[in-house]
Amino acid sequence: MSMDTTLVPEPYVWSEPPLGDAKSAPTRFYTDPAVFKAEVTHIHLKHWFFAGRVEEVPNPGDYKTLQSVGGPVMLVRGEDGVLRAFANFCRHRASILLEGCGNTPNIICPYHAWNYRLDGSLAGAPGMREVPKFEKPPHGLIPIRMELWEGSIFLNYDDGAPGLMEHLGNMPELVGSHRLGDMVKTWHMEIETRCNWKLLLENAMETYHTGIVHAATVGAQRSVSFPTRGNWHVIQVQARRSIAVLGQEPPFPAIEGLTEQAQQGTFFTVIEPTVQFVYAQDCMWWLAVRPIAVDRTVLSVGGCFPKAYTELPDFAERAGPYYNRWEAVALEDVGILERQQVGLSSCLARPGPLSWRDDMVLAMNHWVMARLPPALVDDMMADGW
Fold it and tell me: Where is the Rieske domain (predicted)?
């Protein structure tokens, strides 16, 4: 895959206003339930969100469930080998059908035993023969729009939204040499946080805090920013070796065939609105947020390695330091962001001046603001943005 030569680092990537005049977003951006409700309607239910990896549901009958802003979801691999996504509730009276993950030959409602085939069609509905005009075909599981990219599963509640590849723009050109499609997920954790969903992603896209919040782990970092096309942002933390472990030589070699730009550091990307993919020289990890309320979010953290690495006899031992790093840094970030959320709730809190290292924070704020009702944005801006 050829690299787009327009994707070269720039000192700063600013949207208006210029450096020196730019301020952090109004506190209501993170604390107002009305803003959160508008985000659900105009952003989360209209854009692609990350739902997992295909290797989590590899065989016929395999399933995985998850919660989303739009409600409970199931991913199911059919007998025909096709992966599908459905709303995870019964068409009778909306009982949840599946929980967790596992394998099943069919899907049976635990409430009234309506049962569904793995392709979502209704197979049986006890007692409904006596109901006039009842027919099975219209009452199958409700499908959710799904597209795959390099083994990653994305869902969208809006059937009229642009396709996933249009949404990603030129992201695949910058990170293509990492060959994410040849990787497999080996680790995952979830953290319930008491902060707004945007704070988690803003934190993940600036290195201003790393020498302070992560002084005992990753330490100070420096990064460069890139202009992008599509609904994504990227910085690259400069280091010629992987920063996916703490204070030691990386246990795995660099992925073969990385571009010269990819060899120079780790790409921290955000695919709007809710997921960060991080590409180090030897692995990939993600931070995906699931908004629950204006001040509550579930943070999903997971990691992938090239399949060949996972087949090494000492893979588990080598991978341990990566898992330790991902968990430790995530918990450090959550701790400081929960404190930030409390500070934002003060009646005296006002937008503060941004550093040049907050360039992506500003860019991400503008992406969200541009998709909210103008009247709501104007009302927030009257608070001092």
Answer: 48-155
